[in-house]
Amino acid sequence: MQLTDLTMLELARKLASGEVSSVEATRASLERIAQVDPQVRAFLRVDAEGALAAAEASDRRRKAGTPASVLDGVPVGLKDLFLTEGVETTAGSRVLEGFVPPFDATVVRLLKEAGLPLVGKLNLDEFAMGSSNESSAYFPTRNPWDLTRTPGGSSGGSAAAVAAREVFAALGTDTGGSIRQPAAFTNTVGLKPTYGRVSRYGVIAYASSLDQPGPMTRTVADAAALLQVLARHDPLDSTSASVETPDFSAALEEGVKGLRLGVPREYFAQGMDEEVEASIRAALREYERMGATLVDVSLPHTQYALATYYLIAPAEASSNLARYDGVRYGQRAKDARGLKELYALTRERGFGPEVKRRIMLGTYALSAGYYDAYYLRAQKVRTLIREDFLRVFRDVDALLTPASPVAAFKLGEKVEDPLSMYLMDVYTLPCNLAGVPGLSVPCGFTKAGLPVGLQLLGRPFEEALLLRIARAFEREHEHFRRLAPLPAQGA
Amino acid sequence: MALTLEQVRHVASLARLALTPEEEQRFATQLSAVLDAVARLQSLDVETVEPTSHATLAASLLRPDVARPSLPPEKSLANAPAKVGTSFAVPKIIE
């Protein structure tokens, strides 16, 4: 067994007992990256020097008996959407190539204060727009379970790095499923907290009313422990919720006996892969066996979620991405004549096709004469979608659904057809529109050995209950013990 | 609904994107397909429904209006593609 095969909390216990030092763990992580990342390509850049310096500081704290947190010394990775002072941050885009942020995102500051060495920046779909990592301007990340397949997106680099044991955990962001879908594709745990639970300050914005950072880990307990570091009211984010932060780990082992779990019939519609459905249905039976009551429920506006999302998210994106104009940071078209051409050429050269497509769609939906018919109408339907959730949550404690209609698909399979790619998010994006928390937990494998993810959706600010429900299933199967076969032979 | 090339050029101009002729063609086709897919929202009666802008935001949060240090000019300008003194430099705006 290699050091990097440990889960995050297993490592934390060894750090606490002095059996392993943070420098050893961080070196093991860096060596693992050197060994497998040429195949996986999860990292856009590795900050070995910064990570080792943080690890040395952590070891000094541990020796002095003053650890900064239970996770002090655990090396983790960051999706390259989080601003890191002094370390290049690109959002997977050419337009930000060479951009070195002058400050840290709030969650980056929190990780540093808790003593976690930050090993590097992980690949993503450009500006988090995509479901396969193929819209990264740099290169596609590959799925550690099958290098010819996508790890999902947009937090595909984060999911792949965790599944490949290059880091002990990573941060992702989730706007329409970008934490949960890649978690499902890689046999990892991905938690999208309630909107407002985790600060968005210093997280490069895609769609501000939907974006939410969250943990990506090997186990449920690891996700709870990492969320504990991240969840905090932040005066620098005006949408950060001013709520108490509970102990997310306290009730993890309490099981599901007596809980009412809803199974929304709209999430078992046509288009789902048979093996994925069989795996999810087996998990549902398992929950019944463990003492939960399954309740057939309906979220009747689910069929409108995809259309609603693909109006609201691009509209917000078109506004958020107006800032990339070549004036204050990032790339600039140096040959432009006049300011307007400077904007237009900088943006034309700096953005990839998916980003341009969404900017165009959003600009259209917000433009004079179309605003009421598209954007305003979508915001109203969003209300109906949210009300669906709040209504069923009066009767059930959480919902169980597939995280994705399919297992990881082949790289290149959907790049030519944007609509078929958008359909990949059909089970994950209602959660963002409603602002509720969602989690994907390893559910099993297809015959071809591809991971399947079970999605849990819960009431606002009830992440602790979701984690407990996920842990009940994890304890039965421990799918996380099955490790992606890397380095792959002959690849 | 089908977007015309004329409409694509208008939207590109609003979005400050200097699209190539090939991109204009491609986006006309692809955006038309997406607009067809989102047209299903038109069938819902939302006359009396309030729009949602932020899902969990009950009310605007306020914090004390306390002055705190902001980024020093050299840090703010560190990523500038072009600068003059403590200012960002851009091409001439007025001909």
If you had to describe this structure to a student in words, what would you say it looks like?
The complex is a heterodimer of chains A (491) and B (95). By secondary structure, chain A is an alpha/beta fold. Chain A has a domain at 3-258: Amidase signature (AS) domain (Amidase signature (AS) enzymes, Alpha-Beta Complex), CATH 3.90.1300. Chain A has 15 helices and eleven strands. In chain A, strands 1-3-2-4-6-5-10-11-9-7-8 form an eleven-stranded mixed sheet, sandwiched between helices. In chain A, α7 (220-230) packs antiparallel against α15 (463-477), α9 crosses α11 and α9 packs across α12. The longest helix of chain A has 21 residues, at 372-392. The model of chain A has no long low-confidence stretch (mean pLDDT 96). Chain B is flat and about 55 Å long. Chain B is mostly helical. Chain B has three helices and two strands. The longest helix of chain B has 18 residues, at 21-38. In chain B, α1 packs across α2. Chain B has a domain at 1-42: Glu-tRNAGln amidotransferase C subunit, N-terminal domain (Histone, subunit A, Orthogonal Bundle), CATH 1.10.20.60. Chain B has a two-stranded antiparallel ribbon. Chain B has helices at residues 5-14, 21-38, 73-76, and strands spanning 83-84, 87-88. Classes of the chains: A alpha/beta (491), B mainly alpha (95). At the A-B interface, α9, α10, α11, α12 and α13 of A face α1 and α2 of B.
